[in-house]
Amino acid sequence: MSLTPDVPSRRTALLAAGFILLSCGHAHLRAQQEAQTPTHASLGIIDTVIVSGNEKTEAYVILDEMTLKSGMAATPELLEYDRNRIYSLGLFTSVDLYYDSLGTKRFLLVNVRERWFIVPVPILGFRDGDPSKFFFGGGLLHYNFRGRNQKLFGSAVFGYDPAFAFSFSDPQYDRADNLFLGASISASKVRNKSVIQSDLTGDFDEQHYDVNGTIGKRLNLFESAGINAGFHAVNIGSLYPGRTVSPDGRDRYIYATASYVYDSRNLLEYATQGSMFFLYFTKYGFGESNVSFSRYGLDARKYFPLGGDFSLAARVQGSLVSGGLVPTYAHVYFGIGEHIRGYYRTIWEGEDIAGGTLELRYALLGAKTIRFSAIPLPDEFSVWRFGVSLALFTDTGLAWFRGDKVHFDSFASGYGGGVHFLLPYGVILRTEYAWNDHRIGQFIIDFRGAI
Predict the structure, then answer these.
(1) Which of 402, 399, 414, 345 is nearest to 14 (CA)?
(2) Chain centroid to CA 33: how far?
(3) Which of 238, 322, 351, 394 is deepest in the core (most CB within 10 A)?
């Protein structure tokens, strides 16, 4: 589907941001040096780092996430940067860093308050924001199994798109060699997402079964690389050409993904400083089935602190396919998962996808940690973190099929503003109003972290 936006300047700005992001991603070593270079007056050299308040969490989980080490100069900027990185682990309700001295010894004290690690997770909502697509269920999450930031999660969802899943991850499986691993298994019944296929024969269901494992290496504080491999099975009862590669409506194939990540963001759920660059390649099918195609993708993000509580966030993302037939269930979309604000509920479908975002933010209320001592709650639940930001944004994007003619006017764009709320446990609530290319507006409520 092609659109002819009447505000091309927004798209030009986003394309320029994409080039900036790509250059930033490739210059990750320079970014790492900048993150560790003091720009404020030094508080002094650190002789030792002391961690307190971690009753269950191993101290190395915290220390390995910090840029500051013994022998380095502490600055207020680096203290704040490391405080946010530790908070981004998702293990603590509050994190405080203090630089002090005792006699001739100068130390950095890291004080944390741990969350409640075994948490029942209610699952409730509407698929794609559609009230007719109600789902409900629950899960059980262990945030910090054995105190090593290991994650165990099991869930069951009923109603629209029922599913069952179990996963495990260990970010420091082998600390000596900086190896991480993970595994998951899932089964789901998914209502077809393809508008093209629905228009042909009506809606139909897809049954998906998946088992996979991941192993990788953390190369340094900001970089990691890994390989994920698994087996996937799809059953579709409503036969039609293109819905599966196999003519009987049953695809069975092995897949593998190689990925690289550079991530220096200060706060994962709502970053205001740093960069993220995610590059991946996935091969579907290795000769054991009729499925045989590949997908190449990237997601690059850059966050610029502008001073005076202002920051700029930019993102460019996309993926391309090559090889054989891409079945309907492997198509990509805007309007499902990824969104163009202004066309939030409009669905674009294709084999390939590309998009970008610029977001100017003002921290109306910087993230504050508040302790409600008057409320009779366990200590893990009495410390809450809040923040409020104002934002102006513009989005652009396009999904297309191989063989389609793609040009700048094919992209759909939107722009607008809103209020973003940083809520306890890293939840981000976005309330926004957006206009599309044709100046048609819409109100959006979304739970989504940093772009």
Answers:
(1) 414
(2) 24
(3) 394
Q: What pLDDT shows up at residue 442?
A: 96
What pLDDT digit, counting tens, does each position of 317-337 carry?
A: 999 999 999 999 999 999 988
Residue 1: its pLDDT value, please?
Answer: 36
3-state DSSP call for residue 318?
Answer: strand
Q: Please return the burial class of 37, using the count of CB atoms within 10 Å of its CB with bins 0-12, 13-18 and 19+.
A: exposed
Give the mean model confidence (pLDDT) for residues 283-309: 96
Output the DSSP codes for 113-127. EEPPSEEEEEEEEEG
Comparing CA positions, the residue from 395, 439, 393 lying closest to residue 416 is 393
Q: Is pLDDT of 157 > 80?
A: yes
Q: Is the pLDDT of residue 130 over 90?
A: no
390, 417 in Cβ contact below 8 A?
yes
Residue type, 224: S
- Amino acid letter, residue 278: F
Beta-sheet pairing, 105-114 with 48-52: parallel
CATH architecture of the domain 8-114 equals Roll (3.10)
- Terminal CA-to-CA distance of the chain, rounded, Å? 25
Q: Which amino acid is at 135?
A: F
Element (H, E) at 324: none
CA separation for the pair 342, 350 (Å, rounded):
20
CA proximity to 261, closest of 226, 230, 223, 210 = 223
Ramachandran bin of 205, using left for φ above 0, alpha for ψ from -120 to 50, beta for the remaining angles: beta
> What is the CATH class of 118-447?
mainly beta
Angstrom distance (rounded) from CA 38 to CA 320: 40
Residue 201, pLDDT score = 86
